[in-house]
Protein: Major facilitator superfamily (MFS) profile domain-containing protein
Organism: Streptosporangium carneum
Amino acid sequence: MRTGNDAGGRAAPAAEPERWWRQGGFPFFIASRALSITGDMAAVSALTVHIFQGTASGLAVSGLFVVRVLPRLFGALAGGISDRTDLRRLLIACDLVAGLVFALVAWSQPGYQLILALVLVAESAATVAAPAGQALVARTVPPYALGRANGTVMAVTAIGFASGAAIGSLSASTWGYQYALLVNALSFALSAGLVAVIPRVPPVAREDGDDRGFVATTLAGLGRLRRDRRVTGVAVAMIGVTFAGSLDRPALVMLTQRDLDASSLAYGLALGGISIGALLATLLMGRSRLFPASVGVLLAGLSVQAAGHLTMGLAPVVTVVVAGAVVAGFGNGMEGISGTTLLQRAAGNSVGLLMGVVMSGSYLADAVGSLLGGLLVGAAGARWTFVVSAVLMIACALSATRITGDEHAGPSGGEGGGPPT
């Protein structure tokens, strides 16, 4: 694939700042991810409604989310596959597998246990596709444009989650859950077609001629990444803030509906505020050179998130809760874009492996944090849970600062020194 990076990994010439967008196939990749994310969320929300209506059991619904999370705990292996495989073929295969699974569920309308088994297959394909997509961005977008590219991916993801959930819920309640699954299957087929337009993205040849097996090279890659202070600090910060933020998930409902005596609309507005804040961050970081992807911006994002969560916890009225949610979402966008970009730059030939590790750690942190958050809400209340969450976010920023040391400057060829956008 001809991109802003030449065969030696050098940045694109400054005189051609936009050629990466037109020639690198990035618009086709973004369109494919938008389709697959929207369809996937439509299917998940429709299946959630279907399972609850059929079983009247919250535990049964939890089973659906458990099988969705389980494969993502093996992100290191999924990322290792990305580093050793043509990314275009891998993404097409993942899309086709997921599409066939959801088409089969829609056609056969199986029982609960078989639904879980088939969803597990589809989510395993999605687990492989996630680090593969991030690796594709890292290997096809020049360094000066990585922050903007990652911001675009984040924006598309947020919009796809919101629109897909709405489509799935509407479909399940109006026409039947199977129609949302058919929409999802079609979205994956279209996504595969869009990815097929992108030229091949073969694995990068290893300079040391390492011909060891898959498991051995994966373990060796983990060892190299663990010894990189910057990588370790950024990964710890991203996984840690995921844990801290997940504590608030059960607290937000209690805060809005019991402590502030508001309606369920207030809860929805707060969630929407987080998404709006994240979208604002993607726009600002994509267009302003004042916020290049760097360790400093990552730490600032963690601090802004902490301020937003603290504001939500201390809010006297719902309006302040929503404002705090926008601030928290903005900080989340700063942290997510900067962290992802820094990891992509530092990982070298192991970008898929590293992103898979962070994905696994984040999902595990989210699951544990959500569970502990429920216990903390019951013991201390919603407001104190938000305070604890904010304190932990500041602790993540301090830990990242200590681990990375004084290395806050971005690498050469970073966004701050790139051509204007």
